[in-house]
Design goal:
By secondary structure, this protein is of the alpha/beta class. The protein has helices at 5-28, 33-42, 71-85, 103-112, 145-165, 186-202, 229-239, 258-267, 293-309, 331-351, 354-362, 366-377, 382-391, 398-404, 407-415, and strands at residues 46-48, 56-57, 60-61, 90-94, 116-121, 169-173, 177-178, 209-213, 223-224, 243-248, 271-276, 319-322. It has a single domain (44-355), classed as Alpha-Beta Barrel (TIM Barrel), CATH 3.20.20. The chain is 48% helix and 11% strand. A hairpin with a 2-residue loop joins β2 (56-57) and β3 (60-61). It is globular, with a radius of gyration of 22 Å.
């Protein structure tokens, strides 16, 4: 399903007067409104192809219907999001869930919606039907060479698919680790994994990046072979300049200071990409900004500060991706909420008066530093984000228009109530 341009214009016309009032007020309160608007327009967040259907837990799955039945329908869904918010201009694919049968037509379809292909994701955390060797005891870390080779070959195959689609990066997340003490020789597991990653790295095209994603636990509950940012950084450093660490917000132990991790990775030039989500307990994969919005703001504060310190382009020098799951919400509505939360937080981080913050830090003025951060965090930037969207051709209120157009009902009619999208 698509939402016609005139529908968006009609919707915007109906909200324009009220929006104009709010925007004028918001813009008057910030120093460089035009500069911020430009950055917001440029900022794009990739949608994960595996999050377009209803997610589940091991206790059950409750689909809302109309899930995409193919890669093409997934692209259509992301195209719809992008038409509404103009900030979801990329899709991140997971292989083998989303193998492009005809890469050129898939690429053309995506281009029709103004979408690019962000990082490709490999999957050696599940056994696929017909797969020769099992990943039950890991993939790249495995004690058997033939299992490791199978995992390396899979990753290289994913790179080849990505090349056909115009992607420029590979994200490797390994579930490798152990469930019980004594099960694994940690050093051997690390060395095996490094050796495999080196082979994959060697197959990267010259202009590609490799993201090594870490995660503290799950599905292994005693040790994880890429368990934290230290281990990921170790791999990335040993691999070379095209290898980076990927931070997934849900992959830390409780109370981890993620913003500090981000600051140091950026300082080392080794932060490559982001998986946005939110969580209360573990890797909950909830809507971005729904549980700990202030933490997200502090992360964006470090991102903006750290990228500026290195002269990086906010929009293009890191891979911005959502990695979430939707158990009780319409996935598309949830994704609209997540993208909105990211943009709002980015805008707030752009508001921080850096000069005054540095002065407060240098003067050990703790109160002033806190006031500066919280002042930005408490600023209502919704009208700024809406204005950026309006200027980019999107809808002033994407969620309202999505509902007014009864998108989910149309999708159910078109695809059926019982369709199941590939993914988790
Ligand atoms: C693992 O929990 C993860 O965050 C990785 O990014 C996977 O690719 C993704 O979720 C989907 O399973
Ligand atoms: Mn992830």
């Amino acid at each position: 399903m698509q939402i016609e341009k005139y529908k968006i214009e009609e919707h915007n016309r109906s909200l324009l007067k009220e929006h104009g009032r709010r925007f004028e007020f918001a813009a008057a309160g910030v120093t460089d409104a035009e500069g911020i608007l430009g950055r917001l327009v440029d900022f794009q967040v990739a949608i994960p192809s595996w999050a377009l259907g209803t997610g589940g837990t091991r206790f059950g799955r409750f689909s809302g219907g109309g899930e995409p039945r193919s890669l093409e329908e997934k692209i259509e869904d992301v195209g719809l999001l992008h038409a509404l918010n103009r900030s979801s201009g990329a899709i991140s694919l997971h292989i083998p869930w989303d193998i492009p049968k005809q890469a050129s037509s898939v690429r053309a379809l995506a281009a029709q919606f103004g979408l690019k292909f962000d990082a490709m994701n490999s999957n050696t955390f599940q056994d696929q039907p017909g797969q020769e060797l099992s990943y039950k005891f890991g993939s790249l870390q495995h004690v058997r060479k033939d299992v490791r080779k199978q995992a390396v070959d899979h990753n290289i195959e994913v790179i080849r698919y990505g090349e056909e689609l115009g992607s420029k990066s590979l994200t490797v997340w390994l579930s490798d680790g152990s469930c019980f003490p004594g099960q694994l020789n940690f050093r051997q597991a690390f060395q095996n994994t490094l050796e495999g990653l080196k082979e994959i790295y060697a197959a990267l095209p010259a202009d590609w990046k490799m993201f090594v994603e870490y995660k503290a636990f799950e599905p292994n509950f005693y040790s994880t072979t890429v368990g934290d940012w230290g281990q990921s950084l170790l791999y990335a450093s040993k691999l070379g300049p095209k290898a980076y660490t990927l931070v997934d917000l849900g992959h830390h132990l409780p109370n981890a200071n993620i913003e500090q991790i981000v600051a140091l990775l950026l300082m080392e030039g080794k932060l490559g990409g982001f998986h946005f989500n939110d969580s209360k307990y573990g890797d909950d994969d909830l809507t971005v900004g729904s549980i700990k919005p202030y933490q997200l703001f502090l992360i964006f504060n470090e991102l903006v500060e750290g990228m500026d310190a290195r002269g990086m382009n906010h929009a293009t020098d890191l891979g911005w991706m959502i990695d979430a799951s939707h158990n009780v919400k319409d996935p598309l509505e949830d994704l609209l909420q997540s993208v909105e939360a990211i943009l709002l937080t980015y805008a707030q981080a752009l508001l921080i008066d850096r000069k005054r913050l540095v002065a407060a830090q240098q003067g050990n003025d703790v109160v002033a530093a806190q006031e500066l951060l919280q002042g930005a965090f408490r600023t209502d930037v919704r009208a700024l984000v809406a204005e950026a969207r309006l200027r980019a051709g999107g809808a002033l209120d994407p969620l309202a228009l999505y509902r007014a157009e009864r998108v989910r009902e149309h999708l159910i009619k078109e695809r059926g109530a019982g369709t199941v999208a590939t993914g988790l």
